[in-house]
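Run log // design_07
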């Protein structure tokens, strides 16, 4: 399995200047390639192939006085900029033809030096290396100090240097990891995600919602007020914008760290993890949008999925149309309606349910049914009595084997 390992970089002044030059060169090549293809389309010319585009916007242009400065950076990062453009076009065409499922992909757009994120990528051909002193040696940039929080499991195949909106630099290594299964356990868990409690487990445990964005709202509001009073284009406005960006980056980092710790604990303690397949993008268009974005459900589920695959655990999703909240986990009766303000309800069989715990138990049962039943039928947690006279509701069709009719 290929994973990314991110580490903070602390470049010196000369390194920052070299990185800014590299960001600019990669951005120029990307925009030149995009412009060339757009002009060819307007003139009715054939689509420019990847090889011809590389010769036109890199090899040939380097010989001209206007673009001679492209030779001051590594040629690998220029080729990788065109690779990103080609990938963007392939995704766009696949989305148009229907081969790519999901949300429609827009055509590539021009990059700007004012974009909040700048990135360049070096592959093995660039011959980057990690020095004995623990620095990252980048071609035509230098040895950049790295804050190593852990060691790499194997030799990286590529590294992406990123500058985010807060002005921080990161190195993102792509490494090949060996899957190391954790010791097997008999425990399995169903997880019901929510807002009052971030997660409710099928064993009855509830995990409080940290509400990281809400807790930082006062500080963010103060920083944004200061930014709104600064004159556009001034140096003070740039400083104020960085303060706002750093405040938001701290919120994102805190949420990511919290999600990592919780997902790691759940994957470590359970052999199988089941969650509901929520339509987060649709829920984020409701009046609860801010709270849903603050919860970070999609990020958390993604972490569960790849960590389960890495450590030999089973990860399953239950259909969003499964009535997990309305289904009684004891008798299997589905309630007629279940408004959001109803947190506890009593079934006709006399059992009183906590809404979230009942949903988590049903998610666990449905996930186990999808995993163990080849037909993929929703199966309730307990035995449900068959209607009178229908002990076998779906008998198998009669077949003939060697002239004998069997059931």
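design_07 sequence
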């Amino acid at each position: 399995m290929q994973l990314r390992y991110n580490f903070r970089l602390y470049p010196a002044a000369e390194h920052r200047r070299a990185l800014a030059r590299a960001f600019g060169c990669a951005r120029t090549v990307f925009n030149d390639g995009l412009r060339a293809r757009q002009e060819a389309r307007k003139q009715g010319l054939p689509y420019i192939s990847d090889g011809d585009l590389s010769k036109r916007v890199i090899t040939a242009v380097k010989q001209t006085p206007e673009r001679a400065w492209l030779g001051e950076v590594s040629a690998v990062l220029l080729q990788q900029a065109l690779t990103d453009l080609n990938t963007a076009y392939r995704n766009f065409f696949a989305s148009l033809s229907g081969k790519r499922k999901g949300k429609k992909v827009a055509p590539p757009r021009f990059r700007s030096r004012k974009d909040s994120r700048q990135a360049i990528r070096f592959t093995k051909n660039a011959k980057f290396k990690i020095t004995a002193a623990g620095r990252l040696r980048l071609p035509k940039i230098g040895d950049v100090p790295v804050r190593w929080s852990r060691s790499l499991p194997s030799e990286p195949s590529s590294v992406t240097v990123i500058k985010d909106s807060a002005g921080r630099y990161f190195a993102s290594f792509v490494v090949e990891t060996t899957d190391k299964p954790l010791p097997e356990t008999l425990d399995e868990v169903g997880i019901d995600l929510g807002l009052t409690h971030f997660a409710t487990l099928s064993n009855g445990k509830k995990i409080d919602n940290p509400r990281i964005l809400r807790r930082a709202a006062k500080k963010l509001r103060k920083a944004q007020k200061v930014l709104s009073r600064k004159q556009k284009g001034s140096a003070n406005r740039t400083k104020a914008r960085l303060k706002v960006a750093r405040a938001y980056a701290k919120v994102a980092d805190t949420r990511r760290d919290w999600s990592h710790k919780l997902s790691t604990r759940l994957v470590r303690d359970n052999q199988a993890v089941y969650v509901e397949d929520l339509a987060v993008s649709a829920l984020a268009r409701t009046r609860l949008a801010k709270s849903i974005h603050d919860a970070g459900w999609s990020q958390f589920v993604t972490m569960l999925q790849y960590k389960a695959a890495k450590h030999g655990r089973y990860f399953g999703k239950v259909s969003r149309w499964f009535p997990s909240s309305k289904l009684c986990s004891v008798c299997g009766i589905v309630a007629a309606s279940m408004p959001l303000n109803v947190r506890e309800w009593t079934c006709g069989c006399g059992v009183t349910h906590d809404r979230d715990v009942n949903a988590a138990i049903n998610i666990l049962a449905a996930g186990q049914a999808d995993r163990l039943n080849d037909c993929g039928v929703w199966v309730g947690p307990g035995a449900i009595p068959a209607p009178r006279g229908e002990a076998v509701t779906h008998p198998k069709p009669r077949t003939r084997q060697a002239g004998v009719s069997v059931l």
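The first strand starts at residue 2 and ends at 9.
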